[in-house]
Amino acid sequence: QVQLVESGGGLVQPGGSLRLSCGVSGSIFSSYAMGWYRQAPGKQRELVATITSGGSTYYADSVKGRFTISRDNGKNTVYLEMNSLKPEDTAVYYCNGGRAGWRKAPYEYWGQGTQVTVSS
Questions:
Q1: What percentage of the chain exceeds 70 in pLDDT?
Q2: Could you tell me the CA-to-CA distances from 94 to 55, 104, 105, 120 in Å, in that order?
Q3: What beta strand segments (E) does 13-108 contain?
Q4: Per 3-state DSSP, what percentage of the chain is helix, strand, and coil (rounded to 5)?
Q5: With 90 as the cut, is the pLDDT of residue 100 above it?
Q6: CB distance 13 to 118 below 8 Å
Q7: Average pLDDT of the residues in 62-87
Q8: Bridge partners (DSSP) listed for residue 91
Q9: What pLDDT score was predicted for residue 101?
């Protein structure tokens, strides 16, 4: 069974930084495309960033220049480094992944989500 488990969420002050991690088990991780989504209360779930098995990345305009997605295939883990955080970044962040092939995100599997709160 493929499982995705997020960690690293929490409370951070505006302008601060946070790194989210997503560990993947039960899969050939190196072949997976991975992504991060987020959902704030009362809003649609939105795509934040993706990274392909080859390392190509995509970022939503709202986070471009502030967030960085990366992966460590040796650890079966994808990361989201979040810098210069704003209150509007507050949301539940979800890890997403699968064998994408020619498909675009969202991919097949989802994590349970981790809360990120940006507040003074």
A1: 100
A2: 19, 16, 13, 23
A3: 18-25, 33-39, 46-51, 57-59, 67-72, 77-82, 91-98
A4: 5, 50, 45
A5: no
A6: yes
A7: 98
A8: 116
A9: 82
Residue pair 2/109 in contact by the 8 Å Cβ criterion = yes
Q: Is 29 helix (H, G, I), strand (E, B) or coil?
A: helix
By the 10 Å C-beta count (0-12 exposed, 13-18 middle, 19+ buried), 72 is classed as: exposed
Question: Average pLDDT, stretch 68-97?
Answer: 98
Q: Which of 35, 47, 46 is nearest to 6 (CA)?
A: 35
82: tokens are 């979040």
User: For strand 10-12 and strand 114-118, is the pairing parallel, antiparallel, or unpaired?
Assistant: parallel
CA distance 30 to 71: 9
DSSP state of 65: T
Asked if residues 85 and 16 have their Cβ atoms less than 8 Å apart, the reply is: yes
Instruction: Kindly give, in sequence order, each residue whose CB lies less than 8 Å from that of residue 32, ignoring residues fewer than 6 positions away.
Output: 24, 53, 97, 98, 99, 100, 107
